[in-house]
Amino acid sequence: MTSFARRARALAGRLHPELSLVSYTLLGHLEESGGCRATDLADHYALDKSTVSRQVAVLEREGLVERRQDTADQRVQVLQLTDAGRRILGRVTDRRRAAVGERLSGWSEEDLARFASYLRRYNAGGPGDVPAAPDA
Known about the structure:
Blueprint: H1 2-15, H2 21-33, H3 38-45, H4 49-61, E1 65-69, E2 77-81, H5 83-104, H6 109-124
Antiparallel strand pairs: 1-2
């Protein structure tokens, strides 16, 4: 898993040097969710609110996200992608898909199906699904 994570970070740096892996992840979540509060991002990724706040501030300065009043509760601000945020996220996503497609191009249909099955199984587990350490 460590090797996989290192490779993902290195690939992210090559594919989208204009976005950190964290920024890409936050932009992707905002796109999927249609926008949310910064506290929702912190909760979703189990991050400290100050960490998310710093990341969001960078995205705002770069013009990739903006704050809007929540239509349901005017006291709440919701983070939304800007048009520039959507464009850069789209470009980066296209590059990532092409890179993954290239890496998997020599795999058989059976291997791809098995790999997809394992990924679905892995992703279905939540943070609470980590087995307890055995008694010493």
